[in-house]
Write a structure and sequence with these properties.
heterodimer, A: 106 residues, mainly beta, 6-stranded mixed β-sheet, 3-stranded antiparallel β-sheet, 0% helix, B: 11 strands
């Protein structure tokens, strides 16, 4: 079965750029999405179709996807961005989530 | 405003069947560009996709759980129902439903419901 691999944790200083990766076999041939989940809350879509931002998501969130890796980039990271982030892709008619990355802003 | 709300039992016993209902508002389950998916999250763990259903009644299930899952919809009631048989303590999780947006070959989940915590214990 298809798998997506994320680093368990990423740390970033306020105002700096955070990059969270998601790896999967030929992931660049699929579309990647990213979801933010703050503690005790439901996931929220922050990136879809590799690099598109839904309405209401700040411009500091961006995405890319090529080869075997999709990347979520948060520029000018703020304390409110501290959360778990999950990548997701479709494999044929089924859905795969990555294991999640905890972003710590310190 | 699009919303989804999960409902069902808080506690189920091992071997019992779980039935969860997702009631949607702000969109129609007959909309050709939309569907609904169920996703769960055990405490402190990652998201796990379970199943989805589209407006044309196309369904898909997690490979590892498909023998235990059934998804259906009642468009007139704006509800999507998921049943999971033979519940086990490892199935303890928060269960979410989410709208699937579909544009050509691109799909994404937005928004998600608030989730409902289901505990499996005797």
């Amino acid at each position: 079965s298809y798998e997506l691999t994320q680093p368990p944790s990423v740390s970033v200083s306020p105002g700096q750029t955070a990059s969270i990766t998601c790896s999967g076999d030929k992931l660049g041939d699929k579309y990647a999405c990213w979801y933010q989940q703050r503690p005790g809350q439901s996931p929220v879509l922050v990136i879809y179709q590799d690099n598109k931002r839904p309405s209401g998501i700040p411009e500091r969130f961006s995405g890319s996807n090529s080869g075997n890796t999709a990347t979520l980039t948060i520029s000018g990271t703020q304390a409110m961005d501290e959360a778990d982030y999950y990548c997701q892709a479709w494999d044929s008619s089924t859905v795969v989530f990555g294991g999640g990355t905890t972003l710590t802003v310190l | 405003q699009v919303t989804l709300k999960e409902s069902g039992p808080v506690l189920v016993k091992p071997t019992e069947t779980l039935t969860l209902t997702c009631t949607v508002s702000g969109f129609s389950l007959s909309n050709a560009r939309m569907g609904v998916s169920w996703i769960r999250q055990p405490p402190g763990k990652a998201l796990e996709w379970l199943a989805h259903i589209f407006s044309n009644d196309e369904k898909s299930y997690s490979t590892s759980l498909k023998n235990r899952l059934t998804i259906s919809k009642d468009t007139s009631k704006s509800q999507v129902v998921l049943t999971m048989t033979n519940m086990d303590p490892v199935d303890t999780a928060t269960y979410y439903c989410a709208r699937i947006m579909s544009v050509r070959t691109v799909n994404w989940f937005d928004p998600w419901g608030q989730g409902t915590l289901v505990t499996v214990s005797s």
